[in-house]
Amino acid sequence: MASSTNIANLVLSKPWSSSSSKALYFPLGGRVSSACSSWQISKRSSFRGISRNNNSNNSSNTICMCMPSPSQTTSSSTLPMAAPLIIRDNESLLKYLHQPLVLPHEVDDGTMRKELLEITRRELMRSISKPLEALQMMDTIQRLGLAYHFEEEINIILSEVSSKVYDDEDLMTAGLRFRLLRHNGHQITPDIFCKFLNENGKFEDSLKGDIMGLLSLYEASYLGANGEDILFEAMEFSEAQLRSSLPSLEAQLATKVSQALELPRHRRMVRLEARRFIEEYSKENGHNPDLLELAKLDYNKVQSLHQMELSEITRWWKELGLVEKLTFARDRPLECFLWTVGLLPEPKYSACRIELAKTIAILLVIDDIFDTHDGPMDELVLFTNAIRKWDLEAMEELPEYMKICYMALYNTTNEICYKILKENGWSVLPYLKSTWIDMIEGFMLEARWFNDGETPNLEEYVENGVTTAGAYMALVHLFFLIGQGVTQESVKLLMDPYPKLFSCSGRILRLWDDLGTAKVKKKKQLILQKQQRYA
Question: Does residue 345 fall inside a structural domain?
């Protein structure tokens, strides 16, 4: 999931902690530097793509998490980064997670934070009469990770902006307006860029020197849909001009352009972008000090919540004891939690993150039973049949190493169903069980292909891979955990058959996963040879 990037250190490191804080580094499946400066997200972020390398002695396989000192009361706005302390395994991490996680000033700053929220809310609503100012402030708020506080105000502004025509807007404003409206689910046509075309249907040469306009156009172009050729043209034009202009740009602007070319803004993980942009925003001339202070306080507050969630997941994983019994399995609850933070970073989804991380962690172990362990076919058949039956009696036929995994899946899934039933009154076990059965049967089909020496055609492989990639199973769990919009009709649309939305995204995920993990999927050599012909 993070095998080609340096991202987790930003998710789990406090940017503003006391000088006596301890920055903890613990092993991660992928390469993560200790520089705490990179922010790129891997495009191969499927569950099964998490590295199977369990060697924790590699010093590059670390992520950073700061543990604040309970005695420090320095303001969050002026605190330096902490020096690192190396933590090399989950047990060491667990010990340090018992320490207090919240800075004392954060406990006492409730009034200040509320005041800053109200100040920002008033400023945001006052800006509605000035569209460019409103859009820029909204963009800043979103990049600082504060948008969840102002959802109502943001929707009011976007509705106002979408209902008007702006004939005199420049390229930067047009790109910003298009990106924010489309990214936030409001309708807007790419025809707003037609006025920047010449008589040949190409973008005007006069735009080549407008770097901020080109940057705005480039970011907007990534939100195009099929058939919107003008946005494809916009992407090619803006990217070419931005790359050619890089050597002559001043340092701060060159950094912005380089980061955009590396990864467009809307593809960035919210928490990673917030961590990075807080630093960038603090260096901008004319930045809003109240907004900056609010962003820092809020970042640390949410960060503390994420750390406590990670503590709970790590304790649960240790008590589960799967990797002690199944030594071949991936010991990766930390990456699983990181994925959930990327998906749902807001505080209100705390319980969802915890339960989903548990589900994904168990999925990785089951995948390894079929994939890395090379389980005998008769044992894999027994395991698949036991999952279909979903009862404890079926477990008795399993070998010992499968029993503990079966019990972990059975108990964890049933506990999730109990919590959903208790919270919302829905009995969802049949639906969650169905997704697990589909997953295991998909694993079983891949095992039969390998055992029989059969190479499926690309369509057969990818269709099965949509299921075994794990995204659909996880998102069905998440649908019920969030609990919004759950009706008989929506459940039917979600479950029977797989929606096209999941099928298309699952295909992409499957192919990216295989390209990223081909070196460690020794069991899939024949299938991957097929993949490489088409990829």
Answer: yes
Q: Domain residues for 257?
A: 108-292
As a whole number of angstroms, the distance between CA 242 and CA 256 comes to 11
Which residues are paired to 203 by β-bridges?
197
For 78-159, list the strands marked E by DSSP: 84-86
Over 449-484, what HEC string results? HHHCCCCCCHHHHHHHHHHHCCHHHHHHHHHHHHCC
Report d(CA 329, CA 364) in Å as an integer: 8
Domain total of the chain: 3
Quote the Cα angle for 154-160-164, to 5°.
Answer: 145
Structure tokens at 12: 């789990």
pTM of the predicted model over 0.85 = no
- Going from the C-alpha of 129 to that of each of 119, 125, 126, 177, 498, the distances in angstroms are 17, 9, 7, 15, 45
DSSP assignment letter at 32: B
Asked, for residue 56, whether it belongs to a domain, the answer is: yes
Q: How far is CA 157 from CA 5, 138, 151, 421, in A?
A: 35, 9, 10, 38
CATH number (domain holding residue 286):
1.50.10.130
Using alpha carbons, select from 315, 311, 319 the residue that is nearest to residue 408: 319
How many other C-beta atoms can be found within 10 angstroms of the C-beta atom of residue 455?
Answer: 14
Q: Look at residue 287 and tell me if it is in a domain.
A: yes
Other Cβ atoms closer than 10 A to 491: 17
| pLDDT by position in tens, the chain (length 535) | 443 343 344 445 545 543 333 333 222 233 233 233 333 333 333 444 444 444 433 333 333 333 333 333 344 444 333 333 344 455 555 554 444 433 333 444 578 889 999 999 999 999 988 988 999 999 999 999 999 999 999 999 999 999 888 888 999 999 999 999 999 999 999 999 999 999 999 999 999 999 999 999 999 999 999 899 999 999 999 999 999 999 999 999 999 999 999 999 888 999 999 999 999 999 999 999 999 999 999 999 999 999 999 999 999 999 999 988 898 888 999 999 999 999 999 999 999 999 999 999 999 999 999 987 667 899 999 999 999 999 999 999 999 999 999 999 999 999 999 999 999 999 999 999 999 999 999 999 999 998 888 989 988 988 898 889 888 899 999 999 999 999 988 998 888 767 777 777 788 878 887 776 654 554 445 455 545 544 4
